[in-house]
Amino acid sequence: MNQRISKIAATAAFILAGVSAGAHAADIDNGKNLVTTHNCSACHGATLNNPVSPEYPKLAGQFNDYIFFALRSYQVGGGNPLFGRNNAIMAAQVQGLSESDLRDIAAYIQSLPGDLVQKK
Q: In this structure, is residue 116 part of a structural domain?
């Protein structure tokens, strides 16, 4: 029972953190700088639309909310089965970033032209 309450509390804290950070106006230029300095192109390709290997996702043009949530999930890590994503490379890339930085990266990635297809 206590474990379930802990999971619910962690879920609420995670959602509230995202909502409170939502007031931040994303800075695309900072996002571009962070993508460059963190060498995202090493795996996701120069345009973030041509990954160097098929197991890496195309990022360019992806919705900023999705990118933010994915990056935040890598920060939380695999220790949280509700929200965490377990990937050592991505976890290391995002550990030192603030939520503001993650939103800036997400806004920059969304601004890039990509070939992701949306079903209508």
A: no
